[in-house]
Design brief:
α1 packs across α6. Helix content is about 25%, strand content about 25%. The protein is α+β, with helices and mostly antiparallel strands and about 290 residues long. Bound molecules: zinc ion.
Length: about 290
């Protein structure tokens, strides 16, 4: 797993953008680069601390490359305006990349130089490329902001159109709307709608977000419920947590590596394990054994 930090304006937006990418294991809004220890949102917004609103992005470079992350970063904000993104003005909104190693620094700097040589924008790209300093996680109410405030005006007017544009431009890199709703927002696909329901190929089912191997095809059975079902998970691949939503007590299954929602676990399975891991097709990819 690798980490990089992006400042591209308001972190409610950048968090949602990076969460929509395959290969991004987790995204955490926070502050970096200023002079005050443990700054609050109010202090950072005053513009006096020197911190930048950033998102920490943990990613699996085998699934999403640094170059692809940078392409998405530059596509989804304006890197030519000093200390400003749209109506948001202040040093906390400066376009910034905080790198953790020399490779990230070199790749980011050469990309910016190339964009400026080729005049990719009307004005020069002035993104700051700086070495990462101490990361301060933002207050809890900033975490998962888009998912928790989807019906708010800001999310509908600013974030949603950005995500739609991103999905169109980077179709291969992004989760579809259906995938996002299940994996990131704990939704459930309609029964009998999933592509993998009657798939009988051999192989290993992996997490669509982070690539972690989750289930062997040998554990798959037809439960008649309309969702792909398995009687056991690969060792350590998933975690279970109590889920009291929808007026029921159920056991939620999440990926142990990236925390993405996968489905629910029931104990009415037909095999000796009695387990029925009820999965959403959209959460899984199949790595075939013999292609
Ligand atoms: Zn995962």
């Amino acid at each position: 797993m690798n980490t990089i930090y992006f400042g591209g304006g308001c972190f409610w937006c950048t968090e949602a953008i990076f969460l929509s990418l395959k290969g991004v294991i987790s995204v955490t809004p926070g502050y970096m680069g200023g002079s005050v220890k443990n700054p609050t949102y109010e202090q950072v917004c005053s513009g006096k601390t020197g911190h930048v609103e950033i998102t920490k992005v943990d990613y699996n470079p085998k699934i999403i490359s640094l170059e692809d992350l940078l392409a998405v970063f530059f596509y989804t904000h304006d890197p030519t305006t000093r200390n400003r993104q749209g109506n948001d003005i202040g040093t906390q909104y400066q376009s910034s990349i905080f790198y953790v190693d020399d490779t990230q620094k070199a790749v980011a700097e050469s990309l910016i130089a190339e964009m400026n040589t080729k005049k990719a924008y009307d004005k020069p790209v002035i993104t700051d490329v700086r070495q990462a300093t101490e990361f301060y996680k933002a207050e809890d109410y900033h975490q998962n902001y888009y998912d928790n405030h989807k019906s708010d005006g800001y999310c509908q007017l600013i974030i949603e159109p950005k995500l739609e544009k991103l999905q169109k431009r980077f179709e291969k890199l992004t989760l579809t709307k259906d995938e996002y709703e299940v994996l990131r927002e704990k939704g459930t696909e309609a029964p009998f709608s999933g592509k993998l329901l009657h798939d009988e190929r051999s192989g290993v089912y992996t997490c669509k977000v982070c690539g972690q191997p989750l289930f062997s095809s040998k554990a798959k059975f037809d439960s008649g419920t309309g969702w792909p079902s398995f009687d056991q998970a690969l060792p350590g691949a998933v975690k279970t947590i109590e889920d009291n939503s929808m007026g029921m007590t159920r056991t939620e299954i999440i990926c142990s590596k990236c925390g993405s929602h996968l489905g629910h676990l029931f104990n009415d399975g037909p095999t000796p394990t009695k387990n029925r891991y009820c999965l959403n097709s959209v959460c899984l990819d199949l790595d075939q054994l013999d292609k």
